Amino acid sequence: MGALGLSVFFERMRLWLIGFAFVLLAVGVFQMVRRQKSCQKRSRFSIALLVFCAAIVLSILLFPQQVASLMADLDFRAAR
């Protein structure tokens, strides 16, 4: 399966993948809130990582064209 076949597959699965990303973020938030009631402390790194992942998912959802051109530009620079 080439790049064209993968793009067709991911285009069909786009809504499912977005929903899956939000479900995984919700699970992460739930685990952070639930962990607060236990004896373990939340680390700043885990909170920062969850916020970073949420920011990436939201930026890809809200600004898909800008993220795609940024990724293409980074890929073009790496190919040089």
Structural write-up:
The structure is a single chain. The protein has 80 residues and is an all-alpha fold. It has one domain (3-79). 85% of the residues lie in helices and 0% in strands. It has four helices and no strands. The protein has helices at 3-12, 14-36, 44-62, 64-79. α2 (14-36) runs antiparallel to α3 (44-62) and α3 (44-62) packs across α4 (64-79). The model has no long low-confidence stretch (mean pLDDT 83).
Gross morphology is elongated
What number of domains?
A: 1
Kindly provide the radius of gyration, computed on alpha-carbon positions and rounded to a whole number of angstroms.
Answer: 17 Å
- What's the count of strands? 0
Note the main sheet.
none
Counted by DSSP, the helix tally is 4
Would you tell me the structural class of the helices and strands?
mainly alpha
- SSE string, helix = H, strand = E? HHHH
Proportion of residues in extended strands: under 5%
- Average the pLDDT over all residues and give the rounded result: 83
Helix content range: over 70%
Query: Low-confidence runs (pLDDT<50, min 5 residues)?
Result: none
Note the gap between the termini.
Answer: 26 Å
Short description:
With 80 residues, the protein is mainly alpha-helical. Helix content is 85%, strand content 0%. It has one domain (3-79).
Q: What tags apply to this protein structure?
A:
single chain; mainly alpha; 85% helix
Topology:
Elements: H1 3-12, H2 14-36, H3 44-62, H4 64-79
Helix pairs in contact: 2-3, 3-4
